[in-house]
Amino acid sequence: MLESRQIKSRLTQAIRKSLQEGKRSGKGLTDPRYTTTISKLGKISSRASGLRGQLKVSGSRNLIKRFKLSPSSRPPHNPPGGLHIQVVRGQGGVLPHAFVNRAGLVFERTGRSRLPIRHLNTVSLAGAWSRVSAKVEAAISHHLEKNLEAII
C-alpha cells in the first residue's frame, strides 16, 4: 500500500520510464532505415514533471556528406555522371548535376550554365521521427500501462 505522498513521485517515475522506452523504440525504428546513425544527428530529450511527460525531437537538416556518397570527396577532375547518393538503405540515386566542393558539401547546378548552384541537404531527425511517431506513441502508452500496473 502506498502512502499519499509517494503516489505522485511513483507516477512521475512511471512516466519517465515510459518515455525512456519510447526513445529507445524510436531509435530502433529510425536508425536501421538510414545509411548512418541518424539519432546522433539531432537531439532527443524527454521530460517528466508531475503527471505530465514530453518527448522532444529537434535538429536541423543534415548534410549529405554524413550519408553514403560516391565519390565522397572532391576528385582532382570533375568526372561525368554526377554523384551517387544513398540516404535511405536500398534507395540510392544519381544526381547528374551534383558535385562535392573542397569542404565536402554537396551542391547542384540549377541551370545549364556554371551558376546558379544550390546547397543540398537531407532529412532532419524530426522528419525521420515523424514517419514513426504513431508507433512511438503506441510504445509509450503500452509501457506506461505496464509501469502503472506495476505500481498498483
Provide structural commentary.
With 152 residues, the chain is α+β, with helices and mostly antiparallel strands. Helices cover 34% and strands 25% of the residues. The chain is built from three helices and eight strands; from the N terminus they run H-E-E-E-E-E-E-E-E-H-H. Helix 1 (4-30) packs antiparallel against helix 3 (133-151). The protein starts with a helix and ends with a helix.
Layout of helices and strands, plus pairs?
Layout: H1 4-30, E1 43-49, E2 52-58, E3 68-70, E4 83-88, E5 91-95, E6 98-100, E7 106-109, E8 117-119, H2 125-130, H3 133-151
Antiparallel strand pairs: 1-2, 3-4, 4-5, 6-7, 7-8
Give me some keywords for this one.
152 residues, alpha+beta, three-stranded antiparallel sheet, 3 helices, 25% strand
Structure, briefly:
The chain is built from three helices and eight strands; from the N terminus they run αββββββββαα.
**What is the arithmetic mean of pLDDT?**
89
Shape descriptor reads elongated
Strand content: 25-35%
- Structural class of the secondary structure composition? alpha+beta
How far apart, in Å, are the first and last alpha carbons? 8 Å
The tally of structural domains comes to: 2
**Order of strands across the main sheet:** 3-4-5
Total helical segments:
3
What pattern of helices and strands is seen along the backbone? Answer: HEEEEEEEEHH
Any idea what the radius of gyration is? 22 Å
Give me the count of strands. Answer: 8
Share of helical residues: 25-40%
Largest sheet: 3 strands, antiparallel
Low-confidence segments = none
